[in-house]
## 1
Amino acid sequence: MKRFCRWLMVPVAFYAERFLLLYANTQAMTSAFKRDILKGFHNLGGTDNPARSLNTSDAYKLALYLATASRGAGDTVYNTTGELAATGNYVAGGEAVTLGTPPALDATTAHVTPSASVTWTALTSSGAFDAALLYNDSHATKYAVSVHTFASQSITAADFTLTMPTNDGTTGLIRIA
Amino acid sequence: MADVLIVKLKRNGWPEDEAPVMIDQSLLEYTEGVLDNDNERTVWREWRLDGKIVKRGAHVTLKKNVSAQAVAAMFGK
């Protein structure tokens, strides 16, 4: 039966692959994030926000997406479509990020960057992936922040680490100029 | 020679990977590479057994990231 299923899946996989290759992940701050920060949906660190009754940083996560996914500026919330399968030590929703340094100004540019690398330990990825979505995990809606792309990677029984750029007005992970 | 933890993969979309096992490092072919461009610096390491990848890790350091331009418009425009 299993051998028959394999035979049956070959043409399906062939055409599905070609269809999915029409898509690609695009690095971007999501448009919705620009709106949502004006509405006070996000706190990316710091406890000095007088506008919020719960004056603590929100929790954020990074989720990994297959190279065939289509994450980009149009994302509004965390989306499971195209995310790595929850196998090989990958947990759906991704890994938590550490925001140890609150947003700051570098001259006229505001910036914030997670203060530690994010590592998926002993990962075996369900396919090649080339993007990570940063999103707010404190709200049930899981508002999207940004998509970050990199060269496509397939990981087998080893660690995958994302190290953050220098946190300043030129290279910080999230910047508003 | 140290042992390396490997996984023997049986892919094509079927989750039949074998349980991880330890294997003598001398039996594996090791390669390492670096990709360095404006967007990222990535270092990858992989181990092959009989030509097949049995372990592969990567470390991506992000460089170029996302920004938005803040605009305060003039009244009446």
Note: DSSP finds no helices and six strands in chain B.
## 2
Amino acid sequence: MVEAETEAGAALVADDVRKRYGDTVALDGVSLSIPTGEVFGLVGPNGAGKTTLVRALTGTTRCEGSIGVLGAAPGAVDPHRIGLLPQSFNPADRLTARELITYYAGLYDESRPVGAVLDDVGLADDADTWYENLSGGQQRRACVGTALVNDPDVLFLDEPTTGIDPAGRRALWSLIDDLAAGGTTVLLTSHSMPEVERLADRVGLLRDGQVVAVGTPDELIAEHAGDSHLLVDGVGVDTETVAAALDSEVRERDSRLVVRNVALADVGSVVADLEAAGVDFESFTWAEPSLEDVYLRLTGEALREERDR
Amino acid sequence: MSRSRRIRSAFVAALFAFLRRKTAVFFTFFFPILIILIFGALVQTQPTGGGLFAQEPAYYIPGYLGVVVVFTPLSRVGSTIARHRDGNRFEKLATTPLRRWEWLLAHTLVNVAIIGLAALLLFVLVLLVTGARITVGTGLLALVPLVVAGVALFCGLGAIIGRVADSQDGVIAASNAVAFPVWVLSETFVPPSMLPVWFRSVTALSPLTYFSRGVREATTGGDPTVALLVLAVVATAIFVAGAAAVPKTE
């Protein structure tokens, strides 16, 4: 692996990065550039290569291609400037949250005050509880704290909110917002599309080791998610009847009818048309396209779901 | 300064992590005591012809100390590496300033502290239970570097086993497979005169042999310098190899 030429203002650069595990291709020519201060969300199905890419960028796995982190090769970058929360990270279970953060803080020449880190991750009240006695969400927040102790310029968070309850998740989102506002570059992997849509300035979608789309959530939604639509529920509601009543594209999904390209302002008239045509429906739901639609469309998960049905 | 800060931080975390595992602490001290009670009190040494052992009780002091010097670091460091690997802790540490040799040194120091204390207790217990007679003098101070070098050596070997074995179960099995023959056949419990001539050269290859010789010299008023030097050189080499074996990447 060679050091990638860093573009002006880019904190992370990957150029044609490739990685194989035996016959399995984990990364297949990944190229990315992440500007300083950006929150970049990396999404994709299990096995798409997200964690391998994080490992490649942090220098904890060897790969082909070129990578630049803060203008240096991953193995040569000043470790004081990066922070990592690995996937499935499981630290010593009989240290308290405070001892755990103190341990990692002690590995750096300079570190943030341990109390401040505990405050940031919402563990000030449980700081003296052994890690093994913390709840799953608290454990994950303690792990996030270990990645923040050195106040890194680039922060890698591999599925940071896994197992965290909604309140804890929101607290962590707020923390990531604050870090980004302070100029920290964050690379975040997640299976939660609302989380990525909420946090990320830009999103990269990996599938089979390749980046299949990069852009802001709005750009990706506009380009790949399709139109807003109306979901119609009812016993015996017929696709052809509804299509004829509305003169619209209608599909069946999950035992519901999907009327495509319905703007919010048109919902009333569409419902009136359905009633006028004698369609006996129980309820309807209007849905905006989301990052999840992008994900399902680009990863082929939607196709697989339909095929499985 | 920053290096000592890193090592101190890793040392404290490793020490707390160990001391809070009461079962591990208990058996670290109980197992060698059990060995002393079985061999030193029940079987006993009877040079006149009876008993399992043919030598004076003091001959077996290195064997009793060897229990903690060999078994504990091998299994502890090996299984610690397996636990770190399972929890992706090395992946995390690889992105910090902590170097692999610093990590191993911190864990070695924890073992030195614990095993040093255990060795001291065992030493006293051996004298009380078996009636072993030693020469009291400044030469006994050589026991300290001998134990430190021995622990460092087997911590390094434990790191290599931890790297090679793919699970904690594998580490324990491999540690026992290595530790038991080394412990028994390194001029600890079986005198060289009782072994086939061809096997004596094999015994000379065991680093614990030099620990045994050094302890024996130190406790009988002899000169342990040569044995200590050999042990220190081998310990340094194996520690370096062990540090290189500590995983850096996934």
Note: Chain B touches chain A at residues 2, 5-6, 8-10, 12-13, 16-17, 20-21, 86-89, 91-98, 248-250 (CB under 8 Å).
